[in-house]
Design brief:
Distance between the termini: 34 Å
Number of helices: 10
Strand order of the largest sheet: 5-7-8-10-9
Radius of gyration: 48 Å
Strand content: 15-25%
Structural class: alpha+beta
Order of helices and strands: HHHEEEHHHHEHEEHEEHEE
Largest sheet: 5 strands, mixed
């Protein structure tokens, strides 16, 4: 954006400089032409004064013919046709004579003197200035070009720069898994291929995420089954080791030192196996969503903008009323990417498990921190199941026929914990409330 403004200013300044230089050169040429014409008219006026003094001729037409028209070629060759007048009209002073005293660019007036007395005036007529017409036409063309240039720059800003600034955030948000909506195809199709490619990339990334999530879930299930399958025999082995070390199975009921030593070694190996099992279980749980928060301050309106950009069109298509309630725009110090990931999960659940009569997101600020509540109408979970919704791979009784794998809220809970917050769910009648808490 800054680069566009910079280059737009440079282009406009160059255009204005060119227009200014053109007009200045035109003014300079006009002034030179006026000076040249003044020299010619003064010379001819002097010749007329000399002629009148020598010939005492009072006929205007005779003076014109003798001094100017008979020598027209001479004046043209000496000063050039553009500087030399086309016609001359002499008004000698007489009784009742009105002398013209005002000319113009193409008409010049020179006074005639007989000694120190005014004898009349000479009116010099020049051909219409082609240069003046050229300057006028060029100024009109420059004005039209200037308007076209400004219009083009404004059009580029509105149709290209502003949309591209919005599109430039899409790849970063896509890489962070924040986006579910596809890029809309605009009517002008300036970014048609880019939009198509980014939407195809979005589909591919989402497909890969689902595949990876499915493999992760299968891995956790396999590890869980394996761990539980190993725990039972290891517990039995420890019990047998304890029995052998105490001589429980000895014929005389007394402990054998060698057997007790071997039992202790077996029990130690069993403890090692249990330690490995516990480590595998912990790693299996943490691998579902590996997330390292980076807390930075941001305004609440950034979260509101995310919700509107991400879900407003989607909910409009589904005809689900969507409302956002906020009591201000305070600063939140947390990881905005993690918070957006949580809100995306809560909104997806509200859409999937709600009855479509409305979703409301409420932002509040209290002394202990920030609260974000997503509520939806529908058939809520029984009170007895609410405590299990954040467990891994657990799905409620209201999930029949709805796609899911039971780790979305579990991931959201993990992220909230890493952000120093928490998530809670409560139900009232036909409404479900899920609240994200972020410590201040």
């Amino acid at each position: 954006m800054k680069a566009y403004v910079k280059w737009t200013a440079i282009v406009l300044l160059l255009f204005l400089a060119a227009a200014f230089a053109f007009n200045r050169s035109g003014i300079s040429m006009t002034q030179k032409k006026k000076q040249a014409r003044n020299i010619v008219t003064q010379r001819i006026t002097h010749e007329i004064e000399v002629y009148l003094a020598e010939n005492n001729d009072t006929d205007d037409r005779n003076v014109e013919a003798s001094v100017f028209f008979s020598r027209k070629e001479e004046w043209d060759s000496l000063y050039g046709k553009d500087s030399s007048p086309d016609t001359v009209q002499i008004y000698l002073l007489g009784e009742g004579t009105d002398l013209p005293m005002q000319g113009g660019y193409d008409v010049q007036i020179q006074k005639l003197y007989n000694g120190t007395d005014l004898a009349g005036v000479v009116e010099y007529h020049f051909s219409s200035s082609v240069y003046d017409e050229f300057v006028t036409v060029m100024n009109v063309c420059l004005s039209v070009c200037g308007l076209f240039l400004v219009g083009t720059l404004l059009l580029l800003y509105k149709r290209v720069i502003v949309p591209f600034n919005r599109l430039s955030d899409y790849p970063e948000r896509l890489s962070k898994g924040q986006i579910t909506e596809k890029l809309p195809v605009t009517k002008d199709r300036f970014f048609g291929r880019y939009t198509w490619a980014m939407n195809m990339l979005s589909d591919k990334l989402e497909q890969d995420r689902q595949t990876l999530r499915r493999f992760t879930i299968e891995r956790e299930r396999f590890v869980t089954a394996l761990v539980h399958g190993i725990k039972t025999p290891t517990s039995n082995i420890k019990l047998l080791c304890e029995a052998i070390s105490t001589g429980l199975y000895a014929p005389d009921g007394s402990a054998n030192e060698k057997d007790a030593e071997l039992a202790a070694m077996i029990e130690k190996n069993t403890d090692d196996i249990e330690e490995i099992i516990n480590r595998v279980m912990n790693e299996s749980a943490s691998v579902i969503y590996d997330y390292d928060p980076e807390a930075k301050p941001f305004y609440r309106n950034e979260l509101i903008r995310f919700l509107r950009e991400e879900f407003a069109n989607r909910l409009t298509v589904k005809r689900i009323p969507f409302h956002i309630v906020s009591d201000g725009n305070p600063i939140i110090k947390s990881d905005i990417d993690g918070v957006c990931r949580i809100l995306r999960q809560l909104m997806d659940n509200a859409i999937k498990y709600g009855d479509g009569t409305g979703i409301t997101v409420t932002f509040t600020k209290q002394d202990e921190g920030h609260f974000i509540t997503v509520s939806n109408q529908g058939h809520p979970l029984p009170e007895s199941e609410v405590h299990f919704v954040f467990n891994s791979l657990w799905r409620g009784s209201n999930a029949d026929g709805i796609n899911g794998n039971g780790i979305g809220l579990y991931e959201a809970k993990l992220i909230a914990k890493k952000l120093g917050g928490d998530i809670r769910m409560r139900t009232e009648a036909q409404e479900t409330f899920v609240t994200l808490f972020l410590a201040d």
